[in-house]
Amino acid sequence: xxxxxxxxxxxxxxxxxxxxxxxxxxxxxxxxxxxxxxxxxxxxxxxxxxxxxxxxxxxxxxxxxxxxxxxxxxxxxxxxxxxxxxxxxxxxxxxxxxxxxxxxxxxxxxxxxxxxxxxxxxxxxxxxxxxxxxxxxxxxxxxxxxxxxxxxxxxxxxxxxxxxxxxxxxxxxxxxxxxxxxxxxxxxxxxxxxxxxxxxxxxxxxxxxxxxxxxxxxxxxxxxxxxxxxxxx
Length: 233
What we know:
Number of strands: 11
CATH superfamily of the largest domain: Jelly Rolls
Helix content: 25-40%
Structural class: alpha+beta
CATH class of the largest domain: Mainly Beta
Number of helices: 8
Low-confidence stretches: 18-25, 227-233
Shape: globular
Mean pLDDT: 81
Number of domains: 2
Largest sheet: 4 strands, antiparallel
Distance between the termini: 29 Å
CATH architecture of the largest domain: Sandwich
Strand content: 15-25%
């Protein structure tokens, strides 16, 4: 699934020399929930490094409907998939801290910091691979398989290490829009996953894995073994 195109690790370490020399220009900025970083079709004058929080990327279709094409959290770079104009709109779904870089300075920054240039190339490769994976699974996966893949992807981006718990910052409607499912289907499947003892929802936006291996089996195209289900505790 195309969840924000992946992560960039040790970004500040890779570009610390460059950032230190240009701190006033690359200063961090706060973006409030539901505010936009940019809109589809706007001139691409900046790319953005997400330092904290979550955003969603979406595109407006010919009939006026929206299609969410990805989610991004800390470590992601936004705006690299377009040239002169942004290909997507980008909206904060939580409070976000971002660091904008003027597009006209990207070449110079990468020339002066090969480590940062390497990180950006790796990011592009991850995003391309994620987009190809999404295309391959759009028609091949069932609703259960799509949802399992999505939950695993979000958990991995959240770097789950606290008793297998993580936050789902997006609304159910956003999940449905991204997965190509109806809102009712996503809500029903989330409830079903909890009833079967695979996950536990401690709130609308907080999830805990109880049987991660079952979700991994689903995500890989298998069928869930429903013979034994843990009680949600």
